[in-house]
From TrEMBL:
Residues 30-125 form the Phytocyanin domain. CDD domains: Plantacyanin (cd11013). It holds the Pfam family Cu_bind_like. One of its GO terms (molecular function) is electron transfer activity. Keywords: Copper, Disulfide bond, Metal-binding, Signal. This is Plantacyanin. InterPro entries: BlueCu_1_BS (IPR028871), Cupredoxin (IPR008972), Phytocyanin-like (IPR039391), Phytocyanin_dom (IPR003245), Plantacyanin (IPR041844). It comes from Digitaria exilis. Residues 1-29 form the signal peptide.
Amino acid sequence: MAGQGRVVMLLAAAAVVLCVLLQAPAAESAVFTVGDRGGWSFSSGTWTTGKRFKAGDVLVFKYDSSAHDVAAVSAAGYKACSAPRGAKVYKSGNDRVTLARGTNYFICSIPGHCQAGMKIAVTAA
């Protein structure tokens, strides 16, 4: 009989622990404004230095939509400063992009802008 009492107590304790864990707030994603106050610009190339990103974090690209855009590209597109056909191109001037695990590459696809430094590579853990 005493053994059954212990089992009931353990089950009750396990239920309480489970309820506490389910009520704990989920880890929230961080939101980063690319380029900080300067926004997405020709000087954004070093913006990632010293920052830590994780999958699910959100990058906000703020820029003049009449002069720039943001293209999500592959490593090859990043290196070549080229957005291939079918690449996701953002043009609102206030774009929110959720990071995937691994390295995420972004360029401005306006001719000459990427070559002038308007590109970033963001690695998310």
